[in-house]
Amino acid sequence: RRLSGLPYVVHPLDVAHKYAKLFGKDEGIIVALLHDVLEDGPKNTGKGRDEILSEIKKIFGWNIAKKILALTNMKGKKYGEGLRKYLLEEGDLIPFKVKFCDVWSNVEDIGYVTNPEKKRRIAMKYLNLFNQFECIFSTFPNYKAIKALILQEIR
Fold this sequence. Notes:
Elements: H1 10-23, H2 28-34, H3 37-45, H4 49-60, H5 62-70, H6 81-90, H7 94-109, H8 116-132, H9 134-137, H10 143-154
């Protein structure tokens, strides 16, 4: 469940909806729907990350799998490291567009975080990501409004 009490499935659907509205209907919608499966799938299915990635490759192909992998937070890696690596190797902005919509969806739910320090820590993580990739995110529609929502949670 989300902090709002809604079923978790609402989040990937919201991310995909935001993506379609902002960026159109392309393979990014599939990536948006699956963006958290490599992080959350092992906890919920008992399958390992590699097994889930293999299933994604089999069903959707390596091109989609690479994008989902770029969005996956890996233990011991800096937040956003997969995006940076993907950009250098592929030069494709779909994972950035999905992450943008993911952050937007998460920031809309941040009001349900009751611990002020945790809320601030989450907002700072997103602000740092936005600052790190500002040259990309700032070209997307609604950038200023979403960044303002993040900043509002830090104050």
